[in-house]
Amino acid sequence: MTQHEGPTSPVGRATEARLHRDLPGEVSALMAGHEELTRAPWYPTRPGDRLVVTFGEYGDLPGWTETYEVVTSGKPGPGPGHEQHELRLVEHTAPGDGFAGEFSGAPELWGGDAIETAWMQAGAERLVVIRNGEVAHQGRHTPTRTTTSEPRITTAIGADGVIGAAVVIERDYTPAQREELERRIIQRAHEL
Q1: Which of 118, 135, 146, 156 is deepest in the core (most CB within 10 A)?
Q2: Phi-psi sector, 30: left (phi>0), alpha (psi -120 to 50), beta
Q3: Is the pTM of this model over 0.90?
Q4: Rounded CA separation 45/5 (Å)
Q5: What is the side-by-side strand order in the sheet with 127-131?
Q6: Tens-digit pLDDT profile for the chain (192 aa)?
Q7: How many CB atoms are located within 10 Å of the residue 18 CB?
Q8: Residue 123 and residue 126: Cα distance in Å, rounded?
Q9: Furthest CA-CA distance within the chain
Q10: Which helix (H) or strand (E) holds 18?
Q11: Which residues neighbour 21 within 8 Å (Cβ) at sequence distance 6 or greater?
Q12: Is residue 114 left, alpha or beta, with left meaning phi > 0 and alpha meaning psi from -120 to 50?
């Protein structure tokens, strides 16, 4: 399994089934991933849509994001009068240019949706789809903001009720990380 084929991606689940010699499970994982994509209310993508892919840490490499735009390729697509769409890399936070742009270009399957390869390999939980500046799909393992703020001073109340100054560094959390943080805060509060 590569860094892009997380356990929640259709390709990751199919690979896991293949390791167990489960052909029906492998096919089922791929079909379910395709069905999940094609049933999304914003499907199919259209030119101007943005796709943000979040890659987790991999070995010594930090996690990063890649932002793509859906563009018209100028090549004939399925059906008369249709043009194929593809992804164009807009920006990335990868540790080097050689790591970025894996999903650039046409989808692996001719006539497939521009984001189908990313959807199948990275998984829906690592993707954000943006249409007309609005989030159309937010994966559980994607940051809700693309940047974090600088340290700032604010007023805070301690657990003992004392009011004072505190230095705060805002950090961006994925929905899954935020749920875990909330769980740990509540657990710690019960321990006090």
Answers
A1: 118
A2: alpha
A3: no
A4: 22
A5: 83-92, 64-76, 50-55, 127-131, 134-138
A6: 344 444 578 888 888 888 889 888 888 888 888 899 999 999 989 999 999 998 877 788 777 889 999 998 877 777 666 778 899 999 988 888 788 888 988 777 767 788 999 998 888 888 999 999 888 998 877 665 544 444 556 666 666 777 776 655 555 656 676 677 777 777 777 777
A7: 13
A8: 6
A9: 71
A10: helix 10-19
A11: none
A12: alpha
Return the amino acid letter for 157. Answer: I
Distances (CA, A) of 140 to 88, 102, 125: 24, 21, 5
List the chain domain ranges: 10-138, 152-191
Six token digits for residue 160: 């003992």
- Tokens linked to 141: 């393992």
* Structure token digits, residue 148: 């974090």
How far, in Å, CA of 162 to CA of 165, rounded?
A: 10
Residue 60 is which amino acid? D
